[in-house]
Design goal:
- By secondary structure, this protein is of the alpha+beta class.
- Helix content is 28%, strand content 25%.
- The chain is built from twelve helices and 18 strands.
- It has helices spanning 8-20, 71-78, 95-100, 108-111, 139-145, 180-192, 223-234, 249-254, 278-285, 331-348, 365-372, 376-386, and strands spanning 2-3, 25-28, 44-47, 54-57, 62-66, 83-84, 118-124, 130-133, 154-161, 163-164, 167-175, 198-205, 212-220, 241-242, 245-248, 264-271, 292-299, 319-327.
- Strands 11, 12, 13, 14, 15, 16, 17 and 18 form an eight-stranded antiparallel beta sheet that branches. It has a five-stranded antiparallel beta sheet with strand order 4-5-9-7-8.
- The longest helix has 18 residues, at 331-348.
- The protein is globular.
Length: 401
Amino acid sequence: MIVRPSAAADVARALDFAQRQHLPVAVRGGGHSRAGFGGCDGGVVIDFSRMKRIQVDAEKRTARAEAGSLVRDFDAATRPFNLATTMGGCLTVGIAGLTLGGGEGFLMPKFGAACDNLIAAHVVTVDGRELDLSEVSNPDLFWAIRGGGGNFGVATWFEYRLHPVGEALSGTLAYSSHQVSEMLHAFAGFIRGCPDELNVFAEILPSTDGPGLLLHLCSLGEASRGNDLLQPLRTPVKPVEDKVRAMSYSDAQAAGFLPAPFAHFQTNLFLPDLRPAIETIRTAIHEAPAQFRVLIIPFYGCVTRIAPTDTAFALRQFGFEVDMLGSWNTAGEKDGAVRWVKSLRDRLQPFAHGTYVNQLGETNEDLVRAAYGPNYARLAAVKRKYDPENVLSINQNIHPA
């Protein structure tokens, strides 16, 4: 059964019905859960696709968005005011899952993760209560939803802090197959001195000439300043393609990923230091299936200046999140793609410390504990308080303590 609520009261009724009928419950915001947690068989799906209202208060620099809103909806609402907050680079991602799991984006070094910019939320608990959350109202639950996922209740709206944004320098620098290893080392060193206003992440993709490297970047402020900052990425190794241009931040964000749905498997690890793992990655990409991706997202700046226990989102140290993806067009290609992803993950494990919950295409107890790190025990206690029977279990699940 698919329930499409138009208000929080509908969510409460759906939760009550599912529990009375002893049915599993899945919650669907944008539908981007890599592990398939946005749906279930033989149960109830609470689908927020009809709840997309967004209100912007330009004077207070805040925005309130319902849980069915997508990144592109949110950006479209804030853009006329030249305001923004950290949102994902894939425009069809739902803001709910993004924020509840942490929330990466171009503005993360400057303003922190999406969850760091959350100032209030409205949640329906499994016993039907509607709770307003903030630092002063139900602070334990507010702490938990900022990184702990949908384990504790069903969020119906979110209120965010917005920031002024204007001009930017954005685009990609492309490097050929024989430049990948050298540029990954250069990238790892460059990030250590990167200012907050510049975000750079790396992507390794197949090409006709072998695996190549793309550096995606967005530098806030004047283009001349951004070009000066990028000089070490343009010399002495010259990119084979330079698509970096001056534009507004809004245009840079609007140029984000819009992939058509495709069959794939992805997982990730967090590496405090990328350099020892570069040779392992270089070897693996030359053994990769025809369709693969390795995405390397650095953590530095504002997101790392928040203590790991201040929110449930625990990835607060300098380092690199490495996402590994394999895809397939036919059923016969699936096993090889999945096997390659898991093999690379296992080979990178000795360099790793933790994982990012939103990019996992699988789940198990070890992964959940690795994702929540030092906050797991506290999250389990909050889970016991608000969902002692684990009704909301179709997620990266935290068991009630």
